[in-house]
Amino acid sequence: MLGEGLLKGLAVTAKNFAASYVSAERLTTVQYPEERIAPIEATRDFPFLVYDGEDWEAGLRCVACQICEKECPPKCIYIEKSKDKKPDFVGKMQIYPARFDIDISVCMSCQICVEVCPFEAIKMDTEFELSTTDRFGGLLHDRRALAKSNGHYRKIHPTEAGEVDARRAGEKAKAEAKAKLDAEAAAAKAAAAAKTAEPPAGAGD
Amino acid sequence: MIDKLDQIFVLFEHWLLGYLPAFWRQPAGVLVNVVAIIAVFPTLMAISVWLERKGLGRMQNRLGPNRVGPFGLLQPVADGLKSLTKEDIVPRNADAAVHFLAPLVLLVAAFMGFAVIPMGRNMVLVEMDAGLLFYFSMGAATELSVFMAGWSSRNKYSLLGAMRAVAQMVSYEVPLLLSSVVVVMISGSLSLTKIVEAQNQYTGVFPHWYVFTPWGLAAFVIFIVAATAETNRSPFDLPEGESELVAGYFTEYSGFKFALFFLGEYVGMLSVAALGATLFLGGWSAPFSFLGWVPSWIWFFSKVMLSICVFIWLRGTMPRLRQDQLMNFAWKFVLPISLLNVLVAAAWRFLGGGWPQWVVCTLILALAYVGLGWGGMRRKRFGPRRYRYAE
Amino acid sequence: MSQLQSHSATAHEKPESQKLEGWNQPMELQPDGEAEILEVAMGPHHPSTHGVFRMDVALDGERVIRLKPVFGYLHRNHEKLGEGQSYLASMPYTDRLDYICSLTNNWAYALAVEKLTGQAVPERAEYLRVIVGELTRVQNHASSIGFLIQDMGASGTPLMYAFREREKILDLFEELTGARMMCNYMRFGGCRVDATQSWLDRTRKLVGELPAFADEFETLLCTNEILMARTQGVGILKPELAVNAGVTGPMLRASGVNYDIRKVDHYGIYDRFNFQVPLGDHWDVYDRFMIRLLELRESLKILEQALKEIPEGPVMDPKAKIRGFRPKPGEAYGRIEAPKGELGFYLISDGSPNPYRYRVRPPSLVNLTILEDMCLGNNVADVVLILGSVDIVLGEVDR
After folding, report:
1. What would be the CATH architecture of the domain defined by C78-398?
2. Chain B: partners with 3+ C-beta pairs within 8 Å
3. Residue C298: which residues within 8 A CB-CB, separation 6 or more?
4. Which of A204, B226, B369, C298 is the Cys-Cys partner for B176 at CB 3.0 to 4.6 Å?
5. What is the domain partition of chain B in residue ranges?
6. First CA to last CA across chain A, in angstroms?
7. Do strands C278-279 and B388-389 pair parallel, antiparallel, or not at all (unpaired)?
8. How many contacts (CB atoms, under 8 Å) link A and B?
9. Domain limits of chain C?
10. Rg (CA), chain B
11. What is the CA radius of gyration of chain A?
């Protein structure tokens, strides 16, 4: 019968109209900025540099290997190495970035820098409300603006941060064990060297 | 007391006019009524705009505007202010006088129709014996304004759009008139007040509204279809469609004149809804006899707003018809059915009371509708299809 | 070579085998009589051209007698950029080709590089690829139908319903890959990150609810008389012309040609799944959008099966290198059945870390070449509908 399809269509629309008052599924508006959707853990927006402990300069994990700068597809990272070194989380002396700039107007949030970093130093943040009236400078984030603590990383990506911390704790334990073994071996060698150096002094007379 | 509530506006007007000397009462009364209509219907138009945006939103699983005022009620005010502050551009080689007059003609013609519609008991501006005739002649003037708009813009595309719009409006005038003629035949009068009074009777609880008879229902459906096409509403809004080649006859209008066209379209919608309510839905009469205590003007305005909601519902659901399909539909389907409806109404009169008139009329109309529909779809080879899958 | 020779020598004497239907016929209809020809440019600013796209249309009254598509407004040098950066760095750029279906773009590129390097992909990664690929297909087909109806003037109601479902799928993508649209998920040798059990459960739940949405969509649209009147018999594409023009995807299947790369190439693990390929018999706009709806249902079937059978295991071969690798000199063409058609990546390697030539075969562009033939003789109001039924995304057309 002519008009049957139209009437069925009208029925569907009327059903949606009525249901939008009673069911949340049929009214999907979230009134931003007063309401927000619950953030999803794996979200990635722009990168940030992780530091351990309280002092951001001393605890910065980045060793300026420049792998992320090389792999970044739009080339939005700019790194300058430092002249001196500072100890990292296992005690080894590493260089650090004197300058680490990310231009977030160029960054496309692809997360390749995070994937290729061997030192878990750069991770993805979840903040997107970064608009500013300063068109060029305001969107160029330097080392200070990018450095955020490990506590912040744990807050925004708990699962990932848990895995990273476990891995790093494992490495630290291994490094400490190795250091202890090395120290014992060095002590034993020093003791042996001292013993072979002694007899000439006592064997005379 | 209930009587007083029903006649509250009439009594208020009498009280006001009591302060004037007797000579001035008649013209002042007319003036007061005119001012009332000019105040009420644009407010209703603002409410319809708000209803449309919220209604379409809810049908599409979203909220409509809700930031301007509580529940977005001041959105039409914001839209009006916005259009007032925009620059009024008139093309250089446009016909300036006609360009200026077109929206005014539209508005005047749209408002004139309200003069003869009874909005409550004893609440009609002008008591005319040929009220329906007056209404339709004013309605034809709106088509003139559409053509004036297209012509004066001196723009090839606007002219094309205007001619298509006028062709559409003219071809749907005929079914509109024929469906009203049926009502005139049965009620025996062209006066809208008498038509409403004829429907204001009750058998038991149920009213004698014409929509509850087979010919009345058919006429009402034809009326709604033709009214949607007359006011260029979806699914017949190709002349003003956004994804169309040109924006139609009001391409060259900006600022307040554009807002006036918009106002004119909605006032036209309200006007035709008011006529539909008067002719088929009993005007100001109550749906059940025990509800007669509710004031008559409340019934009238609720019926008008209900029709507006139906228009919005249609807009939210249906895609647009192409111009040639719309014209084909008018001349090859709607017109024959409306002519048949006239015959059926005559048969109704002829068969007298009792069940034969119901059965015969319903049967004739149903068969005609199904047959014509089936024939039309068959000829064009439209229809749902079954699909095969590859092996 | 012989074709070139014969072309220049005796241009009017072609052997029967080379007379392709529609190719060397004049591309215009002649206007009847002394009618004035109206030349209109539709776009690039147009509400219905699906992006920045222009069509130069010549009209005789309401009939289209000539139509030339003009594109390139969104050209972003994708292929040249690919030559200057490593294989891994091109992966996020492939997201932005057909920006609605980023995961299938990733898959095609990963397939091409895996062919070039000979890399194998673990089982679980293959299943995950199928799952996200079919989810992408579902949301693409729903949106495409929604856009088509929006162009027809239904004030966006079916579009809003399609987007409601699409939002749920995009939320799943965000949980898995980190981003809603620019997913950057596939890697050479597997997927970047594994899916948790709770993600799989949520996906199962969503796939259980989606058939109800497909039913609602069908009820709203498929028997709607106005829709049928506007789309049936409009924009007919004959099968021979479609095959000769290189049209692929739902457009080809709506013209009755049984060619689905998932069935032809058996790439990935598609031969383990039980699904059918719908075909159209009337070759018009209605068929194209119904085929998309039916394919949506078939994708839901594949999803159910994949979610049931997905094994445990790694999602990336531990020995696979994703950066700093130098594939041996050679070439590879990796193609998949993307939601829009056959998406192919052709890579030539010269032994260096960057490709020597990086070429994308965009399905939308190749499908657009036949737009004029479909629109000739039709009403100008139908041009918008026919364009909508081709389902183009300008990011892919222009790269």
Report:
1. Orthogonal Bundle (1.10)
2. A, C
3. C275, C276, C277, C278
4. B226
5. 85-378
6. 130
7. antiparallel
8. 50
9. 78-398
10. 23
11. 29
> Chains near C, with 3+ CB pairs < 8 A?
A, B
User: Closest Cα partner for C154 from C94, C231, C207, C39?
Assistant: C231
Residue B389 near residue C301 (C-beta atoms within 8 A) = no
pLDDT of residue C365: 92
- Which of C159, C181, C223 is most worth mutating to test chain A (most A CB atoms within 10 A of its CB)? C223
B378 CB burial (10 A radius; 0-12, 13-18, 19+): exposed
Element (H, E) at C374: helix C371-375
The verdict on a CB contact (< 8 Å) between B370 and A2 is yes
> For residue C56, which of C33, C74, C37, C32 has the smallest C-alpha distance?
C37
Angle between helices C380-390 and C285-309 (to 10 degrees): 20
Q: What is the pTM of this model?
A: 0.87
What's the whole-number average pLDDT of chain B? 86
* CATH class entry, domain A47-149: alpha beta
Is the pLDDT at B286 greater than 60, yes or no?
yes
Q: How far apart are CA B387 and CA C291, in angstroms?
A: 8
> Encoding tokens for residue C102?
């980023």
Residue of A1, A2, A23 best to disrupt the B interface, most CBs of B under 10 A = A2
Percent of chain C at pLDDT exceeding 90: 48
Residue A205 has pLDDT above 70, yes or no: no
Q: Predicted ipTM?
A: 0.84
Interface of C with B in 236-275 (CB under 8 A): 258, 260, 263
* Buried-state track B53-82, b at ≥16 Cβ within 10 A, e below 16: bbbbbbbbbbbbbbeeeeebebbbeebbee
Nearest to A42 among C161, C175, C227 (CB): C175
